[in-house]
Design goal:
34% of the residues lie in helices and 20% in strands. It has a single domain, classed as NAD(P)-binding Rossmann-like Domain (Rossmann fold, 3-Layer(aba) Sandwich), CATH 3.40.50.720. Strand 3 and strand 4 form a beta hairpin. By secondary structure, it is of the alpha/beta class. It is built from 6 helices and 7 strands; from the N terminus they run βαββββααβαβαα. This is CoA-binding protein. It holds the Pfam family CoA_binding_2.
């Protein structure tokens, strides 16, 4: 399964960096997205969601609501199997767009879902 990380970081203190490594350790192919980075831990970074051509099972968000507004169309066009709003990324505008497009979403912490074995379980409805 491929998991896109919007707001990926190469700073080891950032949760998006920790999520990238934890997802890889759990066997997921990660697709990091950041406007200026070229790679993180040897993984090529897409500079925008529009560059992502792979089918994305899960899009996990690590950007605040003030930055999500400009990404809504790209997120809907990406048509991921689900979107995870990590704490602090909640956007009512994006939720409404996802509802309209029929894209499931959840408010959760990717790190907690992975740590407790719920990441895969919560995605079962998508298979």
């Amino acid at each position: 399964m491929q998991v896109a990380i919007l707001g990926a970081s190469r700073n080891p203190e950032r949760y998006s960096y920790k999520a990238l490594n934890m997802l890889r350790n759990h066997g997921y192919k990660v697709v990091p997205v950041h406007p200026t980075l070229k790679e993180i831990e040897g993984v090529p970074v897409h500079n925008s969601l529009s560059e992502v051509k792979e089918k994305i099972h899960t899009l996990t968000l690590y950007v605040g609501p003030r930055h999500i507004g400009s990404e809504i169309d790209a997120i809907v066009k990406l048509n991921p199997g689900r979107v995870i709003f990590n704490p602090g990324t909640e956007s009512e505008e994006l939720k409404a767009a996802l509802d309209s497009a029929g894209i499931p979403y959840m408010e959760a912490c990717t790190l907690v879902l992975l740590s407790t074995g719920q990441f895969e379980k919560d995605s079962a409805i998508l298979n």
